[in-house]
């Protein structure tokens, strides 16, 4: 009976390992997505800073604060935008560290459970999906509209 119990646990362990691995990959992708989003925000902050920096500090400026457009001067807005950009860069740095930690954790998990990812099947499916997408992307207007 001990063997049959062991046999029942083996598939559960494989499923548990697969679920844990999938969860780790999902978490890593979420971190990566958040980093990308914050990098875009930091880039937008840089564009704003570069645009308003050479202007007269007493000039009127509008800033969105909590969904409300507020009138301020460049002198008041510039430091706040710079401070926000610095905060975004700090968060990006922390998320990059968390991403590296998660990558190491996944690599150790793969080595421990001897997980291998085959890309051949998924690449073929992706190519097939792209071909269908291109064929479906063509729009033709009605003949009567050209007359």
Automatic annotation (TrEMBL):
<dbReference type="GO" id="GO:0051082">
    <property type="term" value="F:unfolded protein binding"/>
</dbReference>
<comment type="similarity">
    <text>Belongs to the prefoldin subunit beta family.</text>
</comment>
<protein>
    <submittedName>
        <fullName>Putative prefoldin subunit 2</fullName>
    </submittedName>
</protein>
<feature type="coiled-coil region">
    <location>
        <begin position="85"/>
        <end position="112"/>
    </location>
</feature>
<dbReference type="GO" id="GO:0016272">
    <property type="term" value="C:prefoldin complex"/>
</dbReference>
<feature type="compositionally biased region" description="Basic and acidic residues">
    <location>
        <begin position="120"/>
        <end position="133"/>
    </location>
</feature>
<dbReference type="GO" id="GO:0006457">
    <property type="term" value="P:protein folding"/>
</dbReference>
<feature type="region of interest" description="Disordered">
    <location>
        <begin position="120"/>
        <end position="147"/>
    </location>
</feature>
<keyword id="KW-0175">Coiled coil</keyword>
<dbReference type="InterPro" id="IPR009053">
    <property type="entry name" value="Prefoldin"/>
</dbReference>
<dbReference type="Pfam" id="PF01920">
    <property type="entry name" value="Prefoldin_2"/>
</dbReference>
<dbReference type="InterPro" id="IPR002777">
    <property type="entry name" value="PFD_beta-like"/>
</dbReference>
<dbReference type="InterPro" id="IPR027235">
    <property type="entry name" value="PFD2"/>
</dbReference>
<keyword id="KW-0143">Chaperone</keyword>
<dbReference type="GO" id="GO:0009409">
    <property type="term" value="P:response to cold"/>
</dbReference>
């Amino acid at each position: 009976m001990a063997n049959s119990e062991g046999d029942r646990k083996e598939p559960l362990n494989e499923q548990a390992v697969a679920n844990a691995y999938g969860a780790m990959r999902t978490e890593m992708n979420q971190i990566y997505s958040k980093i990308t989003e914050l990098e875009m925000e930091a880039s937008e902050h840089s564009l704003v800073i570069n645009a308003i920096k050479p202007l007269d500090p007493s000039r009127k400026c509008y800033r969105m604060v909590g969904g409300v457009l507020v009138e301020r001067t460049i002198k008041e807005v510039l430091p706040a935008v710079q401070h926000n950009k610095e905060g975004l860069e700090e968060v990006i740095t922390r998320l990059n560290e968390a991403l590296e930690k998660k990558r190491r954790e996944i690599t150790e998990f793969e080595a421990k459970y001897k997980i291998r990812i085959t890309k051949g099947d998924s690449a073929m499916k992706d190519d097939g999906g792209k071909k269908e997408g291109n064929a479906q992307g063509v729009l033709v207007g009605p003949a009567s509209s050209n007359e």
